[in-house]
Records
---
Amino acid sequence: MNRIFLFLALSAITLVGSEVISGAVEKQALNVSAIVMFVIFVGATLGITYWAAKRTKTAKDFYTAGGGITGFQNGMAIAGDFMSAASFLGISGLVYMKGYDGLIYSIGFLVGWPIILFMIAEPLRNLGKYTFADVASYRLRQTPIRTLAAFGSIATVTLYLIAQMVGSGKLIQLLFGLQYEVAVMLVGVLMILYVTFGGMLATTWVQIIKAFLLLSGATFMAIAVMAHYDFSFGALFSHATELKGIEIMSPGGLVSDPISAISLAVALMFGTAGLPHILMRFFTVADAKEARKSVFYATGFIGYFYILTFIIGFGAIVMVFENPAYLDMAKQAIDGGSPILGGNNMAAIHLSHAVGGDFFLGFISAVAFATILAVVSGLTLAGASAVSHDLYASVFKKGKADSMSEMKVSRIATVVLGVVAILLGISFENQNIAFVVGLAFAIAASANFPILFLSMYWSRLTTRGAVIGGSLGLATAIVLVILGPIVWVQILGNAEAIFPYKYPALFSVSVSFAAIWFFSVTDNSDNAKQEHKAFEAQFIRSETGIGAEGASEH
Amino acid sequence: MTQETINKIKNDPSFQELTTKRRAFAIKLSIAMLVVYFSFILTIAFNPSTLGTPLSADSVTTVGIPVGIAIIIFAFILTGIYTKRANGEFDDLSNKIKNNLKDN
C-alpha cells in the first residue's frame, strides 16, 4: 500500500513540476514564488499522508482518525472546513464590493454554530459512530433511513464539490497560470491521494495546517492594513467612503424583504447543522466533552476570521480599488468603471500583493490553493463514507460487512467521487454555478437536518414520517431552486421566476418538518410502536453517553 | 442496555436533574442567540437606516459596525458559557449517574 502511495505521490509532484516548466514557456502570468510555496505545501501534506497511511488500519481509523483528535485540533479543522476559498475570497470580495453587506452575510454563517453546540453536538457524539445517519437511524429502520440520509449526503457533497472544483480551476488558472483542466485534475488527484491513503487522519491534519496558514496570512494582511491607518478604524472607514461613497457603511440590497431575510437565515443555520462533512468531524473526538470544546474553538476561529475578512475587504477598497496596478484595462475599455483583474473575488489576492509584494502574493495564492485541497478532501471523505458505511455496510450488507471490506469500498468510492468531481469540474467550467452552494445548503437544511434533529429529540418520530417528510423536504428544495430567480430566470432565460425568492429554505424546511410530523403521528403500525418504545434507551445514551464509549471500540 | 438499567437510570435523581437543567440551559442560550440574530436581520429587512446611523456627527463609522462585531463576539461568548458549564457541572452529574450504576 505504501509503495503505491509513494509512486502516486511522486507522480503528482512530477505533474506539478512538469507544468511549472511547460507553463513557464507558454505563459507570462506564471507566479514562481506561489508555485514554490505550493509545492512545499503539497510535499509536506503528502508526507503527512504517508505518516497517516501507516496509522490507518481499521475502518474506525479511516472514518474518524481513530477518535483521538483533541477538541482544539478538531475546532481548528471544523473552522478549516468552513473557511473555504469561496468564503475567504467571496466574503472579502463582497465586502470590497458592497461594504457592510459582507458583514451581514458572514454573521449569518456564524450564528448556526452556537445552536449546533446547544442542540446537536452532544447527542451526535453520544449516539453516532461514523456518519450522521448512524444517529438518524439509531432506533428507526436501517434500510430506508440510511438510503435517504446517504442520498442527502451525496447530493450535498456533490453540489459543494462542483462549486469548489470550478472555483479552484479558475483560481489556479489565474494565480498560477496553469490551464483550467490541468488545475482541476491536479486538485482531484491530490485529494484522492490524501483521502484514500491517509483517511480522516490525513484529511484532518491537512485541514488544520491550512487553517493555521490561512489565519496567519489573513492576520498579517489585516494588521498591515490597520498599520497604514495607525490602527484607527475611523481613519480606514473614512478613506474608504471617500473612494466608494458613504453607502458602503450601511446595509444595502443583500436582504431586501423579510421573507428572504428569514429564509436565508434558516438555510444558513439549519444547513450548517446538516452538512455531512461538518457533522462527521464530531466523531473524530473522544467524547462529548471534546465535542463541545471543538465547537467553542471553531466558533472563535470562524468569528475571528470573519472580522479579518471585513478588514481585508475594506483594505482592498483603499489599496486595490482605483490602483492602476490591479486594474483590468481591457475590461475598463469596454465597460468603464474600475474593474480589477480577475473580478471582485480577487480583491484579497491583490491586497496581499499591495501589502506584501510578490512573495506574500505567492504565499496567499498557495494558501488559497491549499484551502481548496483541504475542503474538497473533507467533502470527498464524507461522500465516500455515505457510500461505504451507510449504503454498502448497512443497507447492502445489512450491517454484516467486516471492517476491511468496508474500508476497501470507501477507498473505491473516494476514487470514483474524485473522478466524478474532476469531470463535473470540467463540464461546469462555463456554467453559471451561483445556485449550487445555495442548493447544497437548502438540501442539507431540508432533508438532513430535520431527520437528524427529530430523531434526537422527538420520541414519536417513525420511519414512515422521516422517509416521507425528508424526501418531500428534499424535493421541495430542488423544485423551488429550479423555479426561483437564479435558475429559472438567469440560467433558463425565462422572463419571470415562478417562485420569487432566491432562498427556498424557509418553505422547504417547513414542508419537511410538517410532513415528518403528520406522517409520524398518523403511523399506527407495530413498527412505529417499537420505535417509540426504543426512544427511552436512546435518550439515556444521548444524554449521558452511557454505552457510547463501548460503541466507539468495535 | 437492559430494561433494568434503563429504569435504574431513569429513576436516578441525578439523571432527572441533569436532563432538566441542561435542557433549560440549552433552550435559554438558543433563544438568546436567535433573538439577537433575528432582531438584527429583521432590522435590516424592515428598517435598514437604523444600522446606517453614524456613531457621531463627524464620524463615518455607523452603528451597524460595532453591532455586527458584537454579534460575532456574543456568539463566541455563548459557546464559551455553555461549554464551561457543561464540561463542569453537567459532566459531573453524568459521572455521578455512571457511578451510581456501578455501585448498585
---
Amino acid sequence: MSVVVEEDRIILSGAATVEDAEPLLAALLEHPHHRIDIAGLARAHLAVVQLVLAAGRPVIGRPESPFLREIAFASPMRIKV
Amino acid sequence: MIRLLIVDDSPLMRQLLTEIFAEAGDFETGTARNADEALAQLSAFQPDVVTLDIHMPGMDGLACLDRIMVERPTPVVMLSSLTEAGADETLEALALGAVDFIPKPRGPLSIEIEGIAATLVAKVREAASARIPRSARLTERVRRRAAATRLAGGSAAPIRPSMPRQAATAIPPRRRPAHLPSHEKAEALSGIEAVLVGVSTGGPSALDALLGPLPADFPWPIVIAQHMPSSFTGPLARRLDRGCAIAVEEVRQPRPLRPGTAYIGRGDADLIFSRRDGVPQILAAPMRADRLWHPSADRLVESARALFPPRALVAVLMTGMGHDGAEAMAALHRDGGHVLAQDEASSVVWGMPGALVAAGGADLVLPLEDLAAQLLAWAQG
Amino acid sequence: MDELLQQFLLEGRDLVADAHAALVALGRDARDRPALDRLFRATHTLKGSVALFDMAPAERLLHVAEARLEGARKGDGALDEAMLDLLMQAIDQTDRWIDAMEGAASLDADATGLSDRLIALIAGDGETGEADLPLPVSPPVAADQDWIAALRSRAELAMVDPGRARTAFRYTPDPDCFFRGEDPLSMVENVPQLLGIAILPAGDAWPDLAACEPFRCMAAIEGLSAADEAQVRAAFRLAPDQIAVAPFNPSPAASDSAPYATELAATLRVEAVRLDRLADQSGELAVAIRALQPIAARLRVIDPLLAAELRAAEDEIARVAGRLQRSVAQVRLVSLEPVLRRLPRLAREAAAMVDKAIRFTIEGETAQVDKQLADQLFEPLLHLVRNAVDHGLEPAGQRVASGKPAEGRIGLAVRQDGGHISIVLTDDGRGIDPQAMRAAAVAKGLMSGEAAAALSDAEALHIVFLPGFSTAESATMLSGRGVGMDAVRAAVERLAGTITIQSDVGRGTRITLRLPANAITTPLLVVAAGDRQLGVRLDQIVETARIDASAVQPVGQAHACILRDRTVPVLDLAALLGLEPTSGALARLVVTDAGPCRTALRVAAFGERFDAVVRESTGLLAAMPAVAGTAMMSDGSVLLVLDLPELVA
C-alpha cells in the first residue's frame, strides 16, 4: 500500500502491510492534525490499524472491504468529521 | 559426495539428521555417539564436515571441537539449541573454530522439519568447503587455553564448558594495533553518517576482528546485519561489548544513532533506518518475505539510502554464504558510497563479499585484519 | 515419521531413567558433580527430543528444569531436597507424557496446567529461567468474569445483536508477534460468524504516538461470534495461550451455565471406572441370559413350539451378548508396556541404593492384556524386581570374583500364547539354594524337618512364598518395603495367575508368572461336593476324569491314583470343606496344577460350564478359606468359586 500525505490528510490505500506502520507513524508524528483517509484501503495489518486507533483522529472514507468498514474500523468511523 | 560425520549422543537426533542428509542425495553420513567416537572417526571416516552436539556425556562438544581443531582441522557445524544458554555456548564454539551452527531441529516433526531441512543441508554443504576461521588456528587456541587454565587456578584441565565461558570472555580479543595497509594511505572521509556492515557465516569471529581494534571515540555509528537467530544476537552483542572499546548493543527497541557505537540487529528480523523529529534512528522491522537472509544487509543499505546520500555511507561486506548485501552495496558504490569487501583468503565463506567483488562493487578488497585499519584511516586520515 | 516416534519412545524413556539415576545420586549427595552434569545432559537432550513432537508443555517444563540445573552447575545455589523432589516430579511427569504420546499420540488437555504448575514451583520466585522459549503468557482466563463483564459494555460491540452472539473472546497477542509474521487481525477475521470486534489498547490506554513502536503489538482484540466455543477456539489454534474464549449469554445471570463440551476428538477418553462397570454389566448380561434356559425347558412341556422360538431368541441374544462382551474386552485391552517400562527405572533406582550396577532388558512388553491385569500387575512385579536386585544379585566384587560381569543382568520377557501371558523374570545372581530354603523354613518354624526334607528341590524353592518367609540375610532399605513373596503370590493368584520359581545355584533365578490375558469373565465349571454346588475356574483345571473309585488308592494317610502314568494325589473336596466325604463307585476327579504339584479333587458331580464374572469375596466370605469369590448362576443364585491353589496347597 502507500501512505500518502496530502494537504489535510494522510491517505492509506491498497493493502496495508506491517511494513507500512513505520511510514504511517512517521507521517502521523509529522502531521499532528491531519485526518486519516481510509477510503482506498483494501486490507490492513493490525500494526497499521492500531496506529490509526492510537492516533485518535477522525477517520474518513468508507473502505470497500466489509470487514474493515463494519468490523475493524466500525468504531473510529463513527466519530464523524 | 560430501562426507558428513554426525556427532550426537541422541539416537533420535542422529536418525533424524541422517534421514535429512540422506534425502539431500549428495551426502555420505557417518555417526558418532560421543566425542571419543568422533575423534576416532576423524581418521577412520575422514569427514569433510562434522555436525557436533554440544551436550554429550563424557567429553563435551566444546572440548571435542577443541580436539578436532588440533588433531584434524575439519569444518565443524555446531548443533545448537536456540536459547540464550545455547547462544553463549555456540558463540564460544565459533570462537574455538566452528565454522557455523544450525539450530537443533525442533517443532512437530511432520510440519516443521521439511522447512528447516533445506537450511540445514545448505549450511552444512557450504560449511564442507569452508575455511577454518583463522582465530581458531593453533596459536590462538593455545593462548586461549593457557589463559583459561590460568584463570582456573593453574590446573592443566582441558577446556570445560563451565569455565572457559567466563575465561574466554575475560580475555580481550587479540588486538593488533590498527595499522594501515601499506599500499594505501587513505584520505579521511567527512560527513559520514553510518558504517553499514553485512556479515553471515564466520561472522562472530570476524566482527571481533573488525570492532576490536576500534577506539571508543570512533566517530561513526556502525550498524551491523549479522545473519543469526533471534536468541543469538543479544548474547553476541554482549560478548562483543565486553571485548571491545566501542559500545556494542543489540537493536530491539528503536535507537537513535550515536558515534562510537555498534548496533547489531536482532535476529529473525530486519534492520532499518528511520527519522524521528529529524533524528536518524535504527530499528528492527519484521522480516520481509522477499529476502532470504535476515537481518537483510540489502534492506539495511536501501533503508539507509532513503535517509542519507551515498557519499555519507560506508559499507563493509564480510564473510558469509549467499549474496546478501552485494546488490545494494554495489549500487551504493556506483553512486559514490564507500564500500569494502573482505578478501577470499580470510573469509570462512567468500559468498557475500565474493558476489560484491564480482559485481565490481568494492572500493577495496582487504583481509579481515586490515578492515578495521581501513575504517580508522577513513575516519582519521 | 513413525519410526522417529518409536525411537523417541525408547530414547525418551532411557533419558528419563538416566535422569532418575542422577536424581537418586544427587539425593544422596547434593554436591555430586558428575550426577548433576548427567542430570543436566539428560534433561537437555530430553528437551530437545520432546521439542520434535507436539509436546509443548513438556518442552517448557524441561526448559525451566534445564535452566535451573544450568544455574546449579554455575554455582547459583545447590539443589535442595525440595528442588530435587520437584525435578523428580518434572521427570516423572515427562515420563507420563511419553506414555501419553505412545497411547494417544497427544498430551492430555490438562498438560498445560500441570506444566505451568510445576514450572512455577521450579522457577520459584517468579524467575522463569530464560524467557526465550514461548513461556506461557499468563492467560487472561483467571479474570474470566472481568473481561466478559467489560466486553458487555463495549461501545464497539453495542450494535451486535446479543441474541445471535454465542461466544465471546479476548485475544491478547504477544507484543512481539509482528516479528513472527503474525497478523492478529487476519486471525480474527477468520473467526467463523464474527459479529463484531473491539480493538483495544492492551494496556490501560493507547500510548502517545511519540512513544509508539511501529512493530510492537500494543492492541488486544475482543469480539463476539455466533459460532460455538469450539469453532472460535479453532480459529485461534495457533495462539492458544493468548486467547480467552467463553460462552456468551445475553443476560449476565445466565452466564455461569455449564461450559460447552470441548472439541470432539477421534479418541474418546473414558474413565476407567466406567469401563469397568460396563465390563461387569456385560458379563452380568451374559449370565442373566442363562436364566432363559430353564424357562425354555419348562415351557417345552407346555408349548414345544413356543419353547423352540424362545430357545432361538435366547441363542440370538446370547450371541449378541457374547459379541458385546468381546468388544468390551477389546476396549479394555491395553499394552503392558506402560507398566513394565517403569520397572527398569525403579530397578536402577533400587540398585543405586545398594551400590549395584544392573542391566535390565525387557522383551515382548507390547503384549496386550486386560486393563485390570495391567493395573494390578505392577506392584507384584516391582516387588519381584526389587527382590532380584536386593537379594538375587551379588555385590559387584563378588560377581567379578566368580567370573560374572560386574553388572548384574535382569531380564523380563513377556510372551502371549492364546489367552494367556507369561512373564518371566530372570536374573544372573546367586540363585536360591533349596537346602538353605529347607533349613530356613525349619528354623523359622514354618514346617517340620521331615516335611522340609520330603520336599523336592523344586518344591523347596516355593517355600519362599510361604507367609512370613524371607531370605534376606540382612534387612535393607529395599527388603523392608512393602509386601513379601507370599503377598506377591497372593496378588498373582488374585489375577487368576500362577507363579513358579526355578533356580540354579550360583547361576541365577527364573520366576515365571502365568496369567490369563483377559480377566473379565472366567470360565467356570460347576462341581458338586456333598449337597453344595461350587465353582472351579476352568483355567485351573488340567482335565476332568471319571475313574473307578477303586483306582483311588490310600497312600499313607492320603489317597492317590494313577493318571496318565503319573501318580496324582487325590483330595476329597467335600472332606476338605468339612462335609461328608464323597462316596460311590465312580470317582469324578478335577485335576489341577494350581498347587505345588498336580492334584486331583474328587467331587460328587460335574455341572455345567459357563463364563462368569468372578467377584472377589468381601465381608464374611472373605474370611472363608478356600473361597476365591462369587459368581452369579443362571438361576440367579450365588455360586461360591473355589480358591484351588489355597485348597490344595
---
Amino acid sequence: MSLKSFGKVEVLYRKNPNSFVLIPIFLITLALFSVSLPGKFFTVSNFSSIAFQLPELGILTIAMAITMLSGGINLSIIATANLAGIIMATIMKSQSLVANLSGVNLVTLAIVVGLSTSVIIGFINGIIISYIGVSPILATLGTMTLLNGISILTTKGYVISGLPDEMIAVGNNSILGIPIPFIIFIIIAIVINFWLRKTTSGLSNYLVGSNENAANYSGINTRKVLLKTYTISGLLSGIAAIIMISRFNSARAGYAESYLLVTVLASVFGGFDPNGGSGRIPNLIFSLFILQMVASGLNLLGISSHLAGALWGTILIVVMLLQNKRKNES
Amino acid sequence: MSSLFKRNEFYLGLIILCLVIFLSITTNSFLTIENLLELFTSYSFLGIMAAGMLVVLISGGLDLSFTATATISQYIMATTIIKYGGNLFIAFLIGAGIGIALGLLNGLLVHYIKVHPMIITIATLNLFKGLLMFFSKGKWIYNFPLWFSEPYDIMVFKNSEGYIYPISLPLFIFIVVLIVTGFLLKYTILGRKIYAMGGNKEAARRMGFNLFALTLFVYGYMGFLAGIGSVAHALMVQTVAPNAIIGKELDVIAAVVLGGASLLGGSGTVIGTFLGIAMVAIISNAVILLGIPSYWYMIFLGAIIITSVSITAYNYKLNMRKEAEIDVA
C-alpha cells in the first residue's frame, strides 16, 4: 500500500507522530484493563480516584517536561515542592497567625508565601544554569540536596499534620463532580500549552532546546529563556505542593521522592525528547493517563507495586528504543 | 607549577587541608589514626563505586543504576553463600559477575538508544529496583556464615602502647581499585581512548575507535566495581538491606564531580575522585565530631556542590573566551 493513499493521515503523522503512538496505546490499555477487570476498572469510582491521583504527578511532570524541552532537566522539583509544602503547613499551624487570621485568609497567606518560595527557588536554579553556566543536572542536583537539607532541618524529620479544613478542601472536594485538583491540573496544562505554542518566550524553548548556540546567534536571549523556564518550573512545583499537602493533610521532608524518576519517565513517554527541542503538552496528558491507568489497573489486579515499578522502567526503555528506530528511519 | 593552580584538585586539596587543620584544632578525636582509618573504611565501598563512576563520567556517560546493581549483587551473593557455603573469593566472584552482567546491559542500551545515559539508567534503576524488591520482598539478610564475619585485616599496625590499627579488607580493596583505575586511565591505550571518546565522540569514531566496545567496557567496569563494592559493604556492615546502598547514587556522583570530573566527559582524575570522597567523608565526620545536628550535613553538602560546580563552570566560561583547549589529565 502506498503512503500516498494515506496522504492526509501522513501529514497528520508528520505533524504529530507521538499522538499516533500514544492514542492507540491509551485505547488499548483502557480496553485491556476494562476486559480483564470487569466491573472494577471501567467504573466511576476508579476514574474518580485516577482524577484525584493524577494532578499531583501531572503538575510535577509538566514542571519537569518544560525544562527537558529547553534541553535541561530539573532534579529539584520534588525537593522544591516539599519545602514549599513545609512552609505552607508551618504558616497554617503557627499559633500567632491562627489566632489573628480567619481560615481563608490564613490559607491564602500560606499559599502565597509557599508559591513565592518556589518561584525564588526556580529563579535561583535559572540563574545558576543560565548566567553561571552550570549544567542543569549538577545545578539542580546541588539545589535538591540543599533544599532537602533545609526541609529536614526545619521539620527535624517530623511530619506537620492537621491542616485547616479550607486547605483540605482544595485537594479533596469536587466542583460539579470534577475533583478540584484535576481542574487545577487542566487549567495549568492549558496555560502552559498556550505559553509553549503561542508566545515568543514559550516557543523559544523549542529553539534553545534543539540548539542553544544557534538560538543564541539568531538573536534569542537564551539566558532569559532558560531563566523564565526554570522559574516557571519552580512555580509549578509549588502548585503541586498545595495539592500534595492538602491530599496528605500533612507536610514532611521526603514526601513523594519516588515521583522524581516517574516524572522523567512520563515526560519521555509523552514525547518530550530528553535531548531537548521537542514535546507537546496534549501528548504528555495522554502519557500521564496511560501510566496512571496502568498503575491503578495493576493495583486492582493485585500485582505488587514493585513489579509495576519494574514494568515502568521496561516501558520507558521500549518506548525509547521505538522512538530511536523511528528517528533513524526518518 | 603554574599549571598546578589551574587544577581543580589543587583547590579541593586546599579546602580539605583547611578542614583538617580546623578539625584538628577544635576536636581531639579527628586527627587520630583510629578515626581516620575507621572513616575511610566506612567510605571505602562508596569510594570503590566512585572509581567506576569516574570512568563512566570520563567517557561522557552517566550511570544512576549502579546502586541497584550493587544491591542485587549483594542479595544474590548473600543468599548463595548462605545456602551453598563458599569462601570470600567466591563471594567477590559472584558480586563481580552479577555486577558486570547488569553493567553490560546498561552499556548495550546506552549504545543502542541514542538518548542521554541518565535517562536510560533511570529506566534500568527502576527496572532493577522493582525486580529486587519483588523477589527479595524487602527482607534483610543477617545470618552470614561464620567465615564471612571474621575480620579480614590486610595490614596491622601496633603503636607503642599495643593498640592495634588494622587496614581492613574493604579499605585495602579501595586503595587497590584506585591504583588500578588510575593506571588504566593514565597508562593504557584503553584508558586514553576513554578520554578521547568523552572529549569528542564523533572525532573518536572517525579515528576508528570501536565505540560499542568502549561503551560496553565502561559500563561493565562500573558494574564490576558496584559488585565488588557491594561485597565490601556487606563485609563491613554484616547485613544486606534493600535500602542500604540505593539512594546513595547522587552522593557518589557528587563526590566524583567535586573531584573535578566533568559531566560533559573527557576530564577527571583518580586523585580528584579520592579527594572528592575524602571531602564528603570529612564533612560527615566533622558534623558528628563537632556535635552539629546531622541535618546540617546535607545543607553543607548541597552548598559545597553548588559553589564548586558554579566556580568550575564560571572558570570554564572565562577560559572558553580566552582560548579553546582540550583538557586531558
